Amino acid sequence: MKLRLSFFSLLFSLLFSFGSLTAQETTVMVRALAKDAKFIGSSIGGAKIIVSNAETGEILDQGFTSGSTGDTKLILKTPQKRYDNLTDEKTAGFQATLNIEEPTFIKVEAQAPFNKKQARVVSSTQLWVIPGKNITGDGVVLEVPGFVVDILSPQTHERIKSSSEVSLKANIVMMCGCPVTEGGIWDANQYEVKAILDAEGKESMEIALKPTEKASTFQAEANLDKGYYTITVYAFDPITGNTGVDKTNIIIN
């Protein structure tokens, strides 16, 4: 009888211990890293992070990355060895808290930069998470390619006389918001920035925009005949393949 009671006591103890382990809260640090640049954080509105069960689609946690873009020297200029961290306590990230009771295959998605709809892209990955086994440090790092391109001029649906010169101006930054300047870390002279002008019944035109004295600002002038025009401005880095696009429409009368 005593042996039987001892057995059940041991079994109960094991089950209780196992249950307490599976009930542990599990955290996963998630970061969004702009391709050829720095981390996407508070300065550009952050990246929206969604962590879900990869098999059922259930959202386990979601939120926005916050914090700084990180240490430029560490991220871009320091040779990286195995296990070296790219981040510190101030670097932008989102700490997801998962309530899981068993090993779970998850999908981690970043929509970034979230506040710049024309530039926003989705980057994602999948991985296993074990209850109570936190993923910390750099955590899960999702690369986000591209440029943020904003057409500053002409304004949407602006009416311009055909006798007037049209000013084409665009602001171009990395996906983390880092500036593009001549001779800078992100060298404006390295990038191809052009405006494509299309109007019904007219041959498409392509005009190169040049860097100005103001950081991240590119400009050109054009003379256009009467018509309804779609203007597409793109930035392209022939070294990394980073590409960004913005569009607007104007009326030449």
Could you please describe the fold and organization of this structure?
This protein has 253 residues and is mainly β. It has 2 domains: 121 residues, Immunoglobulin-like; 106 residues, Sandwich (Immunoglobulin-like). 11% of the residues lie in helices and 44% in strands. The strands form 4 sheets. A 5-stranded mixed beta sheet has the order 9-16-15-11-12, with no helix packed on it. Strands 3-2-5-6 form a 4-stranded antiparallel beta sheet, with no helix packed on it. Strand 13 and strand 14 form a beta hairpin. The longest helix has 21 residues. About 3% of the residues have low confidence.
Keywords:
single chain, 253 residues, mainly beta, Immunoglobulin-like, 2 domains, 5-stranded mixed beta sheet, 4-stranded antiparallel beta sheet, 16 strands
